[in-house]
Amino acid sequence: MSALAFEDVSKAFGGVKALRGVSLSVAAGDAHALMGENGAGKSTLMKIAAGIHRPDGGRLLRNGSPVDLADPRAALAAGIGLVHQETLLFPNLDVAENIFAGHEVRRGWFVDRRAMHERAAALLAHLHLHIDPSTTVAHLSAAQQQLLQVARALAFKCEVLILDEPTTSLTDSEVDHLFTVLEQLRSRGVTLIYVSHRLPEVFRLCKTVSVLRDGQHVGTWPLEGKSPQDIVRAMVGRDLETGHGEGKVGDRVRLDVRGLTRRPYFSDVDLQVHEGEIVGLFGLIGAGRTEVVETIFGLYRPDAGTIRVDDAAFAPQAPADAIRRGVVLQPEMRQSQGLFFNLPISENLLLGREAARDGWVRPLGRERAECEALLTRWGIKAASIDVPPDSLSGGNQQKVVLAKWLLTAPRILLLDEPTKGVDVGAKHDIHHLIREEAALGMGCLVVSSDLPELLALADRIVVLKQGRVQGELLRGASEEDVMHLATRADESDAA
Amino acid sequence: MSAAWKAVWRTRELSTLFILLAEIAFFAWYLWPEGGGRHPFVNGENGLLILKYSAIYGIAAVGASMVIISGGVDLAPGAVIALTSVVLGHQYLEAQWSLPASILAGLGVGVLAGGLSAALVVLVRLPPFIATLGVMGITRGLAYIVTEGRFFDVSARIPPNWAPLGVPLDWIAPIVMVLLTVVFQLFMRHVQAGRAVFAVGGNETAARYTGIQVGRIKTMVYLVSAVLASLSGVILILGQGQGKADLATGYELDIIASAVVGGASLSGGRGSVVGAVLGTLIFGVLRNALPQIPGATFYDRLIVGLVVVTIVVVDQILARRQG
Lengths: 495, 323
What we know:
The complex is a heterodimer of chains A (495) and B (323). By secondary structure, chain A is an alpha/beta fold. Chain A contains 18 helices and 22 strands. Chain A has a 6-stranded mixed sheet, sandwiched between helices. A 6-stranded mixed sheet of chain A has the order 18-19-20-15-21-22, sandwiched between helices. The longest helix of chain A is centred in the middle third of the chain and has 16 residues, at 172-187. Chain A is globular. In chain B, 72% of the residues lie in helices and 1% in strands. Chain B is built from 13 helices and 2 strands.
């Protein structure tokens, strides 16, 4: 019998169809992997199961009977718990309060703290998690926070546990711990739905796999007898090589970083970006990728090392210096670091250039035409340049963040997760535009956790681990090659 | 019709002006003298009186609204006005400085107070509320220490009918207010540094990542706010004549309320200089007209409070409808 089934579920976000009639069912007691490229609709489908989104069409069946999951509470009441990719906890509250947030253990009108802590301690012991329930969550590691979400789902007596990319920020031994716990839960009859793009993990944990592509269900198969290549082919729907559009890489070194060090984030980083080259910077979370590009952009001062831009020394005191020298950064967090929701799109586009200019007067008129040309070139769907960017979809917002830097005529484009959380179409557009800019001679340094994206986009991938360069891989390297570099234990770990 | 009204409301300067005109029309009708004769509210002399007293708030509100738009708040203007008047009075009367030199000394109070606020906010990273609360206490406290309970009667040394540059004393405050309003409104709308204030108030992190020098922008707004408060203090003492330590007590809250009534958001990123100044006029008219209504004197503060709440609530409801 199926513990959870989707029937013809569809969902659109502002014109972008995230799900187009997905039907799939998950057997009770199964460990079911859900795979697909970024933007394939995995997270949307799981958020519908968790009551975060409501489907535009179709329905959900729980143990064979239709359920209406109007909100996360209803989903929890139906026994469906979601462990989010990014930990959604209250960092200021303690462990027990997080587990029981919203359904605190009460005695009469009052929260019974002692009972709550006792129950929390029991749940944590269950998960082999040795932490005091009165610890503030901000003090926990990423892995502990991830397991805390599992504990929260168990506190609600969830029978279906959905895990959305739970291992992206975990170390190998933490992954092992998580998997041990998950195996135990499954042996006790909990149904697991495991969303991931990490094939080795999927083969290790799951019995069944469903693949989504462009919002549609490609198929569901038992994993036994399947090879990783079979699944990748189902996910991508074509041979992997076709996405490559190799540009011409020039000989001139545009960005030359030597021995760059900012403790404790990274040390002794060497990397070069040539004219027309797209260089990927890969590493697990905490490897120091974002810190490297933010330091090059002048947000922080390095402790040591030199940077040269077009063969001239470069030591920005502030981002404004970097922008004046033609080095720009598209930050990782689009909403909090990239956009001004109180200002119209036109100003979002112009502020970067204006800030770098020392001039005081802001001429008008000509700039409107510039902004409108940018909207057209980037295919940004907006009512006008006078509305704030909050009405735009994630992909269009990201295009605004990227487009503003092209007004500054940059030489080096630092991109931090350029397609994080954008839909398939926008992702394609953004890749296309990055290649176009590179073809015009710009040097691009792309940070991304999305390995298939980096493999398709980058001419060369530099792999970081714990703030140190582990090696470089040329175009044509496999996902395994990169992951091997990014995770391999070296001498310093053994010591 | 209703769409047009909504458009007016959306241009918050216009809607604030509309509220002000409606308020004036109301009092003109309510206070209409029976059997003819001179109107107690609508007459030139009273109009000038309203302008003259509102301008003390208005000049300070120009700077205070910039601080609010940047996402901060300035609690010091009232105290800065007082210390400025005391320092000017002290230098002019006790130290026997010339009037221009005394005025410069008074404006120095603004530079120092603004510099201190900016340093606490930008360098020490105190929340603006706490930083300027501290500066407010320090400034007010210094005013008491300098005066030791006395007051400086500057009017005794100012020649009667003195008119600097041919402008009668009573007219100086309104004229300065209008000039500053125009200049800073244009600055905030059309100069890069002014737009950066909106950016910093809307999303400080994004401002940093966009290359805006957030520290400089914040320093600028706290300096402008304190210096304009100081200027307001200079004008107040020249017109009114007495430098005292308890001058302008509580003005900071009226000024903040004016900015909010004029469309500013205390969470930053939204508001306008013209709106804030019109807001001070709305309160100026209330303060002038209410005492003329028999029995209304004690309702003064209550009505001011109700007006603030009503205007802001209507504003939010309309903003929500727009979506």
